[in-house]
Amino acid sequence: MKNIFIVAIAFLFSACNAQTKTNNTSAGKKFAVTKTDEEWKKQLSSTAYAVTRKEGTEQAFTGKYWDNHDKGTYSCICCGQELFSSDTKFESGTGWPSFYQPVSKASILDESDNTYGMDRTKVTCSRCGAHLGHVFNDGPKPTGLRYCINSVALNFTKK
Q: Considering 76, 78, 125, 148, which one is annotated as catalytic?
């Protein structure tokens, strides 16, 4: 059963592999907030560290914000930069919080991600380089984008 679930998730990602490519990448970028691995490990939970610093992914439908309907702002768990507003959050059915746009295009960086045989675009925090998730172009209007973000990479401040 677990293998079927893994295959289904892989199919979901491959079916949604058309992405928006921009020149807003982290390649060669010097981030405003930098810490050693040991400093990040002290600050973050083991799961948050694995996702944000080692480009992991939390399991679908397990994160604390995938089903959050409160109004407020989502920020980077590593550096506190505001990333997404609840006003742009939507129900994607994927099990991760999904947004159709960031609070500012300058708050995120994206770059090609061809891991696991998939053609995706990964999204990172522009201030500290934290891995947040991926962006796909199968989202709702007005942007047509779906920023599929790991809950563990975010903090939420309720309005």
A: 148
